[in-house]
Write the structure tokens for this entry.
Amino acid sequence: MPLISTKTKKNLVVGAGFSGAVMAERLASILGEDVLVIDKAKNLAGLAFDYKESGINIHKTGSHIFHTNHDFIWKYLNRFSKFDIYSHKAKAFVEGHFIDIPLNLNSLYQIFPASLAQKIESKLLKKYGYGAVVPLSDFKTNPFFFDCDLEFLAGYVFQNIFEGIYKKRRNSIFDSRQAFVKEKVSISLTKDDRFYKSKYQGLPAFGYTKLIENMLSHKNIRVLLDTNFKTVDVEGFDRVFYTGPIDEFFNFKYGMLNYKSAVFELEELDVEKYQNSGVTVYPNNYDFIKIHEFKHFKIPHSEALLTFQQKEAKTPWAQKTIISKEYQTDFMPGKNERLYPVLDEKNLKILSQYKAEAKKLNNVYFFGRLGDFKYYSMDCAIKRALELFDAVKFKAAIEFCKEQNPESVLNRV
């Protein structure tokens, strides 16, 4: 039941991705307030935007697999869409072999001769036990853990997997050794080859764009796409929720925050499958860093729904596949998307200045990947938006109490 109020507040939400959609839906459904959602893009869902082509659901900016350990987030999203159960698995192409990533015990046998793999596996299990997750850098940086075979494993992974990925992501290998330690590149001492180990994993049955559309279908919500924030008069709104770039909001007063971006090159192929996993990483070969094949995300469900006649007729689904080659690049304003914030000392200093400016504003809230200048998985973005909404709801409740009881102790604080 919406919170009772003597005044219907008007809210502006900037951004129609997960962060903005969650906030808009909560404001409309729980507080019963009016919400205008704007986005400079011509479509909903932000980076999670997807669409159909040749019967295949295409993710515009690489593979987006929803996963979370939070019951409340999973239940919340399932109010707006059914989910297909899908456990994501990824491979890396290393020295002519496709190996499981993140590394697990299976990976050892995919990389090395059986005798060497078995020797390394025995040492790992003896030292750490089955189920442990072990940072590989320990074998090089901690004398207590020194073992020539385990040091060899760490060196091999660094040189043949991590360093190549790092160079393609950063266009540099200057500090790759420090990053290898900092990012805690690990091996999982199990045979669980899932990319994510979260309790809930899957994809919305009708796509992320439809899920976001369902979230925003409340009677109190109006959506304007292809609309720039700078063209909107914010004076008519009681609150502004901004999920765009925080530096852009302040007209780059302290400088521009840096991001990495990517180019996604689609190819439609006349084959049933191109690769054996939804994503394959190429650390050392070719210029692209990944190949995404979206057909993997829907095959179990969709093939079961095909009739015998459809299969015999060789439907577009059976005949074709679509892949996307991902090339890492720098963010260039007006040319590509801000994808991954560069969290170095320079950018964090600039960010602190913008956060100080943000604190001076009343009823303007910055959140989301760009508003917080922080990389979020989808469930983390949703959690952040829900937590912010709870804070706004609490503030609204206090204001309501003050309106209803002018003599309240709250008005004396």
